[in-house]
Records
---
Amino acid sequence: MKLKVVKNILEANERIALLNRQRFKEAGVFVINLMSAPGAGKTSLLERTINELNSRLKVGVIEGDIVGTEDAERLARLGIPVVQINTQGACHLDANMIGEVLDEVPLRELDILFIENVGNLVCPAEFNVGEDMKVMLLSITEGDDKPSKYPLMFKESSALLINKIDLLPYLDVNIERIKKDSLTINPSLRIFEVSCRTGSGLQQWSSWLLSEVERKNKD
C-alpha cells in the first residue's frame, strides 16, 4: 500500500512538472534546480553567480526554505526578482509548490531562473519541478563519502560544484575520491571545483552556464 501511495504522489508531481516545463519553454527561460545539504553554500553560490551573469543574462530566483526569508532577502538586494516559498516542514520543493508561484515570477523577462531547493541530500533529487537541469552543490566540509551515501542526488544532477576548496589545506578530505565516485555514478556529470569565498572556479562555472543557455536557445 505504501509503495502505491508513493507512486501516486510521484506521478501526480510529474504531471504538474510537465505543465511547469511548458510554461518555462513558452517563456524562453532556462531553469536550474539547485540542490545541496544545509550549509553547503547555495545562497553564496547564487550571489556570486548572479554577479557574474547579471551583465549578460537576466536572472531570477525562486527561494525554497522550510521557514524564514533571510536567503531571499540577501538575493533581492542584488536587484533581481526573487520569490520565496516556505514549505512549513516539507524537506523539498515539489512541482505544485513551484506552479503555485509562477504567476509571481516575470518569466518572459528572464533568461535564467534558479530554483534554490530546501537543504537536503535526499528528497529534492526525487522530485522533478519542471527544470531543465538539476545542479548539486557539495561542500568539502561534508566529507568525501557523500556520493556513496547519497547516489541519487549525483545520478540526477547534470553538474556538481564542489565548494569551499579554499579549506582543503585544513581538512582531511579526498577531493579526488569525490570526483571519482561521482563520475562512477554519473559519467556525464560536469564537475567544478569552486570557492564562493575566494571566487576560485566561478568563472568557469558561469561560462558553462552561458553556453548551456545559448545551446537551449538554439534548439
---
Amino acid sequence: MDIRFLTTFIEVAKTRHFGKAAENLYLTQSAVSARIKLLEEYFHTTLFIRQRNSIQLTQSGEKLLPYAKQLCATLNEAKQELQIQSSEYVVCGATQLASELLLPKMLSHLHNSFPDWSVKAEVLTLDTLSRQLHERVTDLTFSTEPLKSEEVNSHVLMEHELALYRIGDVSDTINAADFVAIDWGAKARDWLLTAYPQLRDAKLRTNSLNLALNNLQREGGIAVLPIVVESQLPASIEMTKIETLEHVSFKVYVHSMKQVRRVGLAEIIESVSTAC
C-alpha cells in the first residue's frame, strides 16, 4: 500500500472536507477521492459517510485513524534515520584548550573545503577523546597532549612559545594570590615550579584559556600564556612579559586512526593535517 493513501485519509479525517484536504496536500479533489476509494477497496470497508456538506468517519474509519497516524509517524522516523545514516558527516572531538585554540579554525576549514559534509564537534577529556577515537565514535580529535597508541596517527598542527605575564594593576611581587594557573601540561608546570616555587598555589586553576583571560582582564594577575595572546588582548589592558619559559612550548595535535574505513574521510584527515 502507498503511504500517501494513509496521509490523504488522515488529512480528510482532519478537515472533514475533500476540497480542503486536496488544497492542503496540493492535489486535485478527484485525486483525493480516488485515493480514499482505493483505500476503502484495500480494507473492504467504507471509511467515510458522504453527505452533502458533511463528511463523517464511519466506525471503521474511527478504528483505522490511530493506526494510520502511528504507521505514518513510524515511517517518517525511519526515513529521517536513514537520511542521517546515509548523509556525509564528520565527528570532531577536542580537549578544552585545543577546542579554544584551534577548533574554531578547523571547523571553518571543514565547512569551506567540504561544504557537503555535516560536522559535529564536542569538548571531551583526553581519556574520553582517546576511547571514542579507538571506538570510531569520533573521526578526528584535537588535544594539547599526544595520544600514545600504535593505532593512531598524530600530527602537530600548532606550536607556540609560553611566557609568564603580569596583567593589569597588580603587585610587582610574584605570589600565589595573583596567580591564575592554566594547565599547559607537565613540562610547563615543572618549569614554573622550579623557577617560582611560590606558585605551587593559585587563586584560580582552570583548563580554559578563555575563562583565565576573562578573569585576568577583570581582576588582573599573573599567568602563563601563549605569546600570541599579546596581540589578541585589547590595547587598554596592561600586559607585561615577566619571563619566557625556556625550551617549553605548547602544541596542539590532530589524531586519527591509521586505518580509515569510511569513504571520503581520508581526504578530510589529510586536508586537516596540512591546514596550518
